[in-house]
């Protein structure tokens, strides 16, 4: 790996099978209860574990594998835990069809038996997209315009 990118990527000591990782990643796409992939966080107690993953790509870029996940929201450490499972599949330690089994278990300990959380190396928030309707200010008499601001 290029030494200038060393800080910006996770380096696997194992040869990874990108085809198997792509097969496994497809199982994440859709609306699922991701309880098995969330680490406990004090602020997640009230949030729904049901999330929608719209895309999970595994792209080969020379010797680098780029994993991109897109969704409508994520639980605490959900992405790191999904990547950890994909790394196990990529090492061929687990089959790609393990993903739906772990999702269906809805227990974090099921994932913990087969994969540890992936380190944060190379994990970046690329962009945040909002539906335009959410960004519109509310209408009505309760919204007063004061000095160019609605309050």
Automatic annotation (TrEMBL):
Annotated TM spans: none
Annotated keywords: Isomerase, tRNA processing
Keyword Isomerase applies: yes
Chemical reaction(s) catalysed: uridine(38/39/40) in tRNA = pseudouridine(38/39/40) in tRNA
Enzyme nomenclature, EC number: 5.4.99.12
Limits of the Pseudouridine synthase I TruA alpha/beta domain: 24-131
One MF term in the entry's GO annotations: tRNA pseudouridine(38-40) synthase activity
SUPFAM superfamilies per UniProt: Pseudouridine synthase
One Pfam family recorded for the sequence: PseudoU_synth_1
GO biological process, one term: tRNA pseudouridine synthesis
Presence of keyword Oxidoreductase: no
Annotated family: Belongs to the tRNA pseudouridine synthase TruA family.
Official protein name in the record: tRNA pseudouridine synthase
Species: Panicum miliaceum
